[in-house]
Every structure is written in C-alpha cells, then in structure tokens.
Write a structure and sequence with these properties.
Layout lengths: L8 H33 L17 H13 L3 E13 L4 E14 L5 E4 L5 H5 L3 E5 L7 E9 L4 E5 L23 E6 L7 E15 L11 E8 L11 E3 L5 E8 L10 E5 H12 L6 E2 L2 E3 L2 H6 L7 E4 L4 H5 L5 E2 L5 E2 L3 E5 L2 E2 L3 H8 L7 E8 L2 E8 L1 E2 L2
Antiparallel strand pairs: 1-2, 1-4, 2-3, 3-6, 4-5, 5-6, 7-8, 7-10, 8-9, 9-12, 10-11, 11-12, 13-22, 14-15, 16-17, 18-19, 18-20, 20-21
C-alpha cells in the first residue's frame, strides 16, 4: 500500500510553478487578442458628421415659438411654505415646504392670479408664498389679497419693478370651439416655464372646487374647459392660451389615475376669472345666494325626498325676507321638516348641485322665483339674491 504524504515546502514550490506559468501565459494571450480585436474596431479617420440644412419652420411652429416668447414673461412660479410648531414647549416654529404651482401677471401693479389651492399653505397655515418671475433670479414675497375657494381663484400682490411685470393678454371663453389649438405654460414638477400644446377637447364641463373641510364637498365650477394639452402637478394656476396668445382659462385640475397627465385636463374659463378678480380686488364677496345652509343630498334622499332642505336661514338674507322655513331639530330631538326647494324659476331642483348651477348664473340683486313644498303643498316665493359673507 502506497501512502500519500504531505508535500514538503520545497516540493510544494516545485509543483506549483508550471501552473502559475501557464496562467500568466494564458492571460497574456487573451490580452493580446482583445487588443487586436479592439484595434480592429477603431477608425482613426473618424470626424464630426456634416450638419444637414434645415427646412423653413412651419407656420404652426413659428406661431408656437412666437406665443412662448411673448407670453412666457407673464407666467410666474409660486412656492408656498407653512409654519408649524414642532415643539410646543419650546415655542419653536419651523417653516416647511407646502406646495408649488404657477400663476400669471394680471396688471403692472404687481397683481398676480393663481388657483386658491396653490396658496392654501399661505392662507390656512399662516405660511407665505414666494414668487419667481420669468426675468431675474430674486424671489418676491407675495401677499394674499383675497381668494374665492368656490371658484378656486386667488389674487396675490408682489412689490416688483414695473419693468419686470408683463400683464398677460386677456381673451374670452364665450366663443371657444372644440378643436381649437391651445397652449399651456407653467411649471410642471418644478420645471419652470414649460410649454405644452393641445386642443380644446370639450366645453361646459363641471369640476368641483377643492373641499373646504372634512366630509364637505367643494362647490361645482361650471363652464370648465377640457383640454388634452399636457397638464401636470405644478401647472395649476398657469394660463391656458388660444392661438393668438390670449388667456382663455386657468389650468386647475387633471383627471389621472397615476397623478400625472393622462390627456384630460381642466381649466377655469377666463370669463369667470375676469369677473371674480375685480371683486376680490375691491374686497367684496364673490358669492351670491339666498342665505341658507343646505342639508346634504344624502340626508335629504334618505328621508325619501328630492330637492333641497336647509338647516338655517341667515339673518337679513333674501331667504329670511321671503319667509323661507328651515328644517329644525326640536328640544325633544325630533326633526321638524321645513321648506323643500323643488324648483327655481321653473327649473326643477333635485340636489344642492342643481341649485348651485342656477344661482351661479345670477348677480347680486337679482330676484328668483323659488318653488317650495310646505305642509304638502307647493308654494312660489320671490327671493332677492345677496352677497354672502
């Protein structure tokens, strides 16, 4: 029987050197092949490609460029912050980012217009808004002049030189047609002054303003423009323009399961903006109504009724002067049903949204005929619409 004993140090050394020699030779051979292969791929005469001549820009392209150059100086980038107290006992207050969006210059006094939801942090959380103009790098502190949450419109004011303020040209939304070319300029995802194009996809859409609180639906905004121009987070408050570069709407919302553009965007019509902004600047209420606090559609329908019930009547309102009766809860906890609004000016009313649609067509001082069901009978009363506080 043969025994295999461990190598001595000298034996181990003499047995390993052929292996290492073969390894080195193989590596050198492979390196040589790779160098030969890569050298065969080189082209020592390589140079830049000649530039092909460009044909003339199309009329559409020239108009796109012209609109962007003319109108983009009117578009601003808005960032808001909120103040929060992180440590109650130390009273330390910290400023944190709240949101961002777009806006546009309304006049040369520093008036800016944007969506109310863009500056919510500056309104509700005692924060502030900073505005970046197209020209220059200095951000300006903006004061909130006022806002209409039901129309999602806010007015800001900055102290900037007139030379940097370029009021946007204002058009009308009254004569728009489906299929018109439109342009959106804004700051999607923080990329400032981005231009996108599309068409008007539909008119007279309805969207809801952002909810004013938990379990409280936002009011309907009517006459909204639908467009397939790419609108993304950060475009809110920016202008929607026609092919003449005039303001025809303010981009406000998108419909998207993913949270980015899916080709369905909505803009508040400029005729609404042009009516609301002067009211905000004058410090007047932008809402008019009968002066009632409506009960939710769900509760009304659960009681087996179609129409609008209301839980209070404001003192001095048109509803109080007309003698409208609210639904009340008595001392023993029972519900005493009041007037049920079923029509206004002959138009049937089945929900609070129906009532909003009709009242939004009117101005303060208008009189409407309200049909109510009272004690099983229908009764017509005349109500004068007034500004709401």
């Amino acid at each position: 029987m043969r025994l295999f004993l461990p190598f001595s140090d000298s034996e181990r050394g003499s047995a390993r050197w052929p292996f290492f020699a073969a390894l080195v030779l193989g590596a050198a051979f492979a390196w040589g092949l790779s160098r030969r292969g890569s050298a065969s791929l080189l082209d020592l005469s390589a140079a830049e490609r000649p530039i092909a001549p460009r044909s003339d820009l199309t009329a559409i392209e020239r108009n796109n460029i012209d609109i962007f150059k003319r109108v983009s100086p009117s578009v601003v980038f808005i960032k808001t912050t909120a103040f929060v107290r992180q440590n109650y006992w130390s009273r330390n207050v910290f400023e944190i980012p709240e949101g961002q969006g777009s806006g546009f210059v309304w006049d040369d006094t520093g008036t800016l217009v944007t969506n109310a939801h863009v500056v919510t942090g500056a309104i509700d959380k005692r924060g502030n808004a900073r505005v970046q103009l197209a020209e220059g790098t200095k951000p300006y502190e903006a004061a909130v002049v006022g806002y209409d949450p039901d129309k999602d419109i806010a007015v800001l004011r900055i102290d900037a030189p007139k030379s940097l303020l370029h009021p946007i040209p204002v058009g009308t939304s009254r004569d728009l047609e489906v299929g018109q070319i439109v342009y959106a300029i804004g700051n999607p995802f923080g990329f400032d002054h981005t231009l996108t194009t599309g068409i008007i996809s539909a008119l007279d859409r309805e969207i809801r303003a952002p909810s004013p609180g938990p379990n409280v639906p936002g009011r309907l905004i009517q006459g909204v423009i639908q467009t397939d121009a790419a609108i993304n987070p950060g475009n809110s408050g920016g202008p929607l323009l026609d092919s003449s570069g005039r303001l025809i709407g303010m981009n406000a919302q998108i419909f998207s399961p993913a949270g980015s553009s899916a080709g369905i965007g909505f803009a508040i019509p400029v005729d609404t903006i042009n009516r609301i902004v002067p009211q905000i600047l004058r410090g007047r209420s932008t809402r008019i109504g009968m002066g009632i606090g409506v009960i939710s559609e769900q509760l009304t329908r659960s009681a087996g009724m179609k129409g609008v019930l209301f839980r209070y009547v404001s003192p001095g309102s048109g509803a109080e002067r007309a003698g409208l009766r609210p639904t009340e809860v008595t001392e023993d906890g029972s519900v005493q049903v009041g007037d049920l609004i079923v029509a206004v000016d002959g138009t049937p009313i089945e929900s609070p949204d129906d009532l909003t649609r009709i009242l939004d067509r009117h101005e303060a001082g208008d009189r409407v005929t309200v049909t109510v069901e009272r004690d099983g009978r229908r009764k017509d009363v005349s109500v004068t619409l007034k500004p709401l506080e």
